[in-house]
Amino acid sequence: MSATAHAHVDDHSNDDHGHHHHKETFVTKYIFSQDHKMISKQYLITGLIMGAIGIAMSILFRMQLAWPGESFPVFEALLGKWAPDGVMDADIYLALVTIHGTIMVFFVLTAGLSGTFSNLLIPLQIGARDMASGFLNMVSYWLFFLSSIIMLFSLFVEAGPAAAGWTVYPPLSALPMAQPGSGMGMTLWLVSMAIFIASSLLGSLNYIVTVINLRTKGMSMTRLPLTIWAFFVTAVIGVISFPVLLSAALLLIMDRSFGTSFFLSDIFIQGEVLHYQGGSPVLYEHLFWFLGHPEVYIVLLPALGITSEVMSTNARKPIFGYRAMIASIIAIAFLSTIVWGHHMFISGMNPFLGSVFTFTTLLIAIPSAVKAFNYITTLWKGNLQLNPGMLFSIGLVSTFISGGLTGIILGDSTLDINVHDTYFVVAHFHLVMGISALYGLFAGVYHWFPKMFYGRMMNKNLGYVHFWITAVCAYGVFFPMHFVGMAGVPRRYYQNTAFPMFDELTDVQILITMFAIIAAFAQLIFVYNFISSIFYGKKGPQNPWKSNTLEWTTPIEHIHGNWPGEIPHVHRWAYDYSKTREDGEYVIPGQDFVPQTVPMQENEEEMHH
Amino acid sequence: MTAFLIIAVLVLVAIAIWQMTKIFELSQIKSDNSEVATDKDNKYNGYLLFAFLIFIYGITIFSFWKYSKMLLPEAASEHGAEYDSLMLWSFVIIFIVQTLTQALLHYFGYKYRGEKGKKALFYADNDRLEFIWTIIPVVVLAGLILWGLYTWTNIMDVNDEDDPLIVELYAQQFNWTARYGGEDNVLGDANVRMIDIDRANVLGLDEADPNATDDIIVKELHLPVGRKVNFKMRSQDVLHSAYMPHFRAQMNCVPGMITEFSYTPIYTTEEMRQNPDVMEKVKRTNAIRAERAAKGEDNSDPWQFDYILLCNKICGKSHYNMQMKIIVETEEEYNKWIAEQQTFGKTMLASAQ
Predict the structure, then answer these.
(1) Helix (H, G, I), strand (E, B), or coil: what is residue B223?
(2) B114 to chain A, closest Cα gap in Å
(3) Is there a contact between B9 and A580 if contact means CB atoms under 8 Å apart?
(4) Residues B140 and B232 placed together within one structural domain of the fold
(5) What part of B 38-67 touches A (C-beta under 8 Å)?
(6) CA torsion A214→A220→A221→A223, rounded to 10°?
(7) Helix (H, G, I), strand (E, B) or coil at A84
(8) Is the pTM of this model over 0.90?
(9) Co-location of B246 and B100 in the same domain
(10) Which chain A residues touch B18 with a CB distance below 8 Å?
(11) Which is the most buried residue in B62, B206, B280, B345, by most CB within 10 A?
């Protein structure tokens, strides 16, 4: 079904919306839907379910770290044979860490965040009837769903799920005799990821084509909301880097199943020499991080885009330095593809290469700093409407700064030597990409919930409680964790009891775990708010946040093709908040915002370029 | 201590719940029941943003006050001092930026909280401001990059000047082995394909290589103080990482290749045990252990400080317990110790009999 076919269709009345040329069945409307709005909800809900599983896993291994070797009924209940008498087994500890990382990075923060909001906002904010290809979009979601199912299924195989860390470095991930999780569990992990990559590529290509081709009249690239810029650039780096991960996964599958030696050489394990000769695990590391590092920005840029939009709307001010924001998004994206080696300073690669990667890595701090300062300036002299989405946006800037700054240490090859693979790294990346991107996700959900769920709004008071508990706990978990790392505690240790020098850090571990448990329970407030608001949320007006962007010009009820009648034309950028005329009155008297659809007024300057 | 922390967390939870109920009460009083923030919401959340700034500072100060002493003691290697001062200066910069930016962010959030009728300033661009906050990070980072690269190049320059001691670190699931070059200070050729467990050739040394005959294979790493050590690292199965935090040293061990790292230990184990920070740490740790002993728990023997080599690359089930003791001693002690060890040649002869 061509989206443009609806260009001339009017929305006849409120009660028979959605019934245009054809009758929609339950299956075409809710399951195999090709409508971007429905697909975005599918991404969101799948992502949130995966997120709940990922967070629950983290609580289990945090408990083990705080109270090593202790017996918990919850372990026995959830882990079964992997927790005899309620004591967590070392293999399943590693599996939990691995699957937690995989789920949170790929399934929640890549698909759940970018998939949800790219799908929802790209057509709505650029003024398009739908994605360029609704069919590919549907396939993209269902491949994502399939890969999620395979990943979850791998939790139940006999020898346990993949347990080689979310980076699945060979040889550990290649040899079933090295670790039980490297058997069937790892096979399923690789299959799941291969499908995930296919899904991500289909989605990204669709986003790119849509943004380039389907913008409405007047929507030049320099009038796009920053959300769209972020999604667009994210899709571009996804297309550049995900195929490289696919090649890494394929070569690893070949090493595992067909006896090739891409990543393996000179291995003696369990009393025998294996035939592998000439491969190198370092090659895998290069391939993995060629995606792995851009992946950080694939996760983060959409969150920053959402923050730009939410923050500007709620500050009732234009985003400060719109062009600089675009430039820094592009600079970050470009640099993100040439910094992967900073994960490998001590991998055995040539130290000179390490110098080059230090240089490129620290460069990335410059556009990041520009973004942070621009956000802060956007707040300056604003009229801040502290809605939950706004609070999460401010929270994002806060964790982005705190987490980003420690990147200066990790990106420096010298300083990396002693904190590499310690809890310092864990604390750094959780703040800068984990928590920040989650805040972006929450900001987006609170802000665009009315757009997704037919005008219903989430309860703001529950939103406030959710934000404040989460914000306190996020720092409570990850701030002290830096110290654990600087004390020399390696990550991925099942327990730290084998080293008396770590004894006194147990108190810190307990504190961290307590905060983590509280944070996890606070997410239940969000879950409750989310579900109950879908059904019972108060209906808001068409444009509840008094926003300029096009999505709020669509009717509250979802219709195919988004706009009844013609697609609106665009006459200005998205950030004319509180713009005044020469006489000091707002451009539209009595209204502090000028939607993009409003033509330039007399005596009005186009001030942003 | 644990009890104190738990109480602290519970107090925080209580405050959170109290705040929660307060917000609920406030929300019920007012007649306007829209889900968009009202002036009252802006006011309370503005105050909370300010309080949150204090919380961030608070947790920073608390962590430094409480946890600084738990960090690694003074570096025990020659390049470690340079490492530590680069780390210190990076932290100084980080904390200045962190303190200022968090203050601005949260203070603006508090100060400019919305009120009905208030007018925001339409302020879209300022080239000069943007230039300033582009150029400042450029200059600061340029400094850090240059200093970092200079140090990095020095640390990673593994060469044979100054007659370094050659030591192989050999990693396998889940233990470490060290091999010394022996009299000639040259390691014999080795490959996993030559491993012969029955004949105790566990590292796969080439028995035909004359350099291998005097090699010495041990399970405890002894290093003479003040002499440069060049480590050659091998792994026989999966990736491992040789992490020696007290020496600010780490390098992955990769099957199929030999990786290198080099440092000069400057304090003997005995000297390090006399370091005031280390003595304090040992005291605190042994207090914890005594408590455990009193309760009849495991892992409660008194601890004496030792340098340690840890595995820091996930390698399987017992990754968390893959370690080797490092003993730094005077040259005489080291010479005496090494003379007592059996050479590879002798081991082979013994196994042949």
Answers:
(1) strand
(2) 4
(3) no
(4) no
(5) 41-42, 45-46, 48-49, 52, 55-56, 59-60, 63, 67
(6) -120
(7) helix
(8) yes
(9) no
(10) none
(11) B345
User: Distances from the Cα of A182 to the Cαs of A170, A488, B67, in angstroms?
Assistant: 10, 28, 38
Domain count, chain B: 3
Separation between Cα atoms, residue A225 and residue A549, nearest integer Å = 7
Whether residue B23 is contained in a domain is answered as: no
Yes or no, beta carbons of B245 and A488 under 8 Å apart: yes
Q: Is residue B104 part of a domain?
A: yes
Do B145 and B172 sit in the same domain of this protein? no
The Cα–Cα gap between A150 and B28 comes to 46
Distance between CA atoms of residues A445 and B217, nearest Å: 61
Size of interface A-B (CB pairs under 8 A): 418
B135 and B172 both lie in a single domain:
no
Interface predicted TM-score (ipTM) of this complex, two decimals: 0.92
**Burial profile B69-89: b = 16 or more Cβ within 10 angstroms, e = fewer:** ebebbebbbbbbebbbebbee
Partner-chain residue, chosen from A347, A355, A406, that has the shortest CB–CB distance to B149: A355
Nearest residue on chain A to B237, alpha-carbon basis: A267
Tokens of B334: 């080291």
Is A422 in a helix, a strand, or coil? Answer: strand
Residue A246 falls inside a structural domain: yes
B202 contacts chain A (CB < 8 A)? no
**What is the residue range of B51's domain?**
41-114
Classified as helix, coil or strand, A567 is coil
Q: What is the least distance, in Å, from the CA of B123 to any CA of chain A?
A: 7
- Nearest Cα of chain A lies from the Cα of B220 at a distance, in angstroms, of 16
Separation CA A372–CA B98 (nearest Å): 11
One digit per residue, the tens of pLDDT, for chain B of length 353 reads 555 666 676 777 677 767 766 666 666 555 457 899 999 999 999 999 999 999 999 999 999 999 999 999 999 999 999 999 999 999 999 999 999 999 999 999 999 999 998 899 999 888 899 899 889 999 999 999 899 999 999 999 999 988 999 999 999 999 999 999 999 999 999 999 999 988 889 999 999 999 999 999 999 999 999 999 999 999 999 999 999 999 999 999 999 999 999 999 999 999 999 999 999 999 999 999 999 999 988 888 999 999 999 999 999 999 999 999 999 999 999 999 999 999 999 988 888 77
Number of structural domains (chain A) is 1
Candidate from A279, A471, A515 with C-beta closest to B52: A471
